[in-house]
Backbone:
């Protein structure tokens, strides 16, 4: 039986990709653009991670409790659920049930979170994180050694696209 302390330590060891970026727009503008953004606009594919081609949500992705299927260019999919929303400061979600046998054998879920911190009236610090929960210790090592750099690069690429769109006002 795991104690809370053991569980907390194991969560700290989960592979994590994180991007911090300052964007020169008001906090609400950044949040309102990023939270409901169509994923195919910011995930064009990165190395081994295929592009996202569509999601199946019927309503804007802005409320806790919503879920959707994310479909990738290779035909695989994952199930995504919005967990928490604290407008305009924070939202979190999880990805799970990967149809790709390789990912499903390695990854139990990915917890994603966006934190928005107003620096002044017209700039915001955005902190975006993926915490990857592996199926076991061997899977954790494989993710850490072989996949984490692609997840990191994917987040950096997506953040760059968001920043460019927000700051150029081409939303």
Residues:
């Amino acid at each position: 039986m795991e104690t809370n302390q053991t569980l907390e330590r194991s969560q700290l060891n989960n592979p994590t990709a994180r991007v911090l970026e300052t964007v020169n727009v008001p906090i609400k503008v950044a949040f309102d653009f990023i939270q409901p953004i169509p994923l195919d606009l910011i995930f064009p594919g990165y190395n081994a991670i295929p592009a996202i081609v569509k999601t199946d949500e019927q309503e804007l992705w802005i409320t806790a409790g919503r879920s959707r299927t994310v479909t990738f260019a290779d035909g695989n999919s994952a199930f995504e659920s919005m967990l928490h929303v604290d407008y305009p400061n924070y939202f979190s979600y999880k990805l799970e049930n990967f149809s790709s046998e390789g990912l499903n054998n390695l990854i139990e879920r990915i917890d994603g979170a966006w934190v928005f911190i107003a620096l002044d009236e017209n700039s915001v610090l955005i902190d975006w994180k993926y915490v990857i929960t592996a199926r076991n210790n061997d899977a954790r090592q494989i993710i850490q050694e072989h996949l984490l750099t692609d997840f990191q690069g994917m987040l950096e690429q997506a953040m760059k696209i968001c920043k460019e769109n927000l700051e150029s006002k081409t939303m």
Remarks:
- The chain has one domain: 15-168.
- The helical segments are 4-12, 27-34, 39-42, 101-106, 137-168.
- Confidence is low (pLDDT under 50) at residues 5-9.
- The chain has five helices and seven strands.
